[in-house]
Write a structure and sequence with these properties.
about 110 residues; 2 domains; about 0% strand; extended
Length: about 110
């Protein structure tokens, strides 16, 4: 996809794709978290913000370390490999049909 960013139209397409993906992800995660624990929405959102901040900090640390050791172009290769590993993990470890339902507050906790 980097070759698409060499023209103004290609860059615009990539920016729109990034915006659509980034815009839908937080809303989807918030909805999923609130459905999973409707009695504590504030706690859910606090956990989400904490995870996002940790992900940003660790990504900056790892990316900076890769740049320091291997140079700037290597970051794109490292990111591509990391993305391929992530996609393969998601595809290999898909959710089983039994776990696709979201528990509600009216159901008892299975841990008790």
């Amino acid at each position: 996809m980097p070759f698409l960013g060499t023209t103004a139209l290609g860059a615009a397409v990539l920016i729109v794709m990034w915006g659509l993906g980034f815009g839908s992800l937080p809303v989807s995660v918030q909805t999923w978290m609130i459905k999973s624990r409707p009695e504590a929405p504030e706690g859910n959102l606090a956990v989400m913000v904490s995870v996002i901040q940790f992900a940003l900090a660790s990504g900056a640390f790892v990316g900076g370390s890769v740049v320091d050791r291997l140079g700037i172009p290597s970051v794109m290769y490292f990111g591509g490999v990391l993305m391929a590993l992530t996609v393969s993990l998601v595809l290999l470890n898909g959710r089983s049909p039994e776990r696709r339902t979201v528990s509600t507050a009216s159901e008892p906790c299975p841990c008790q």
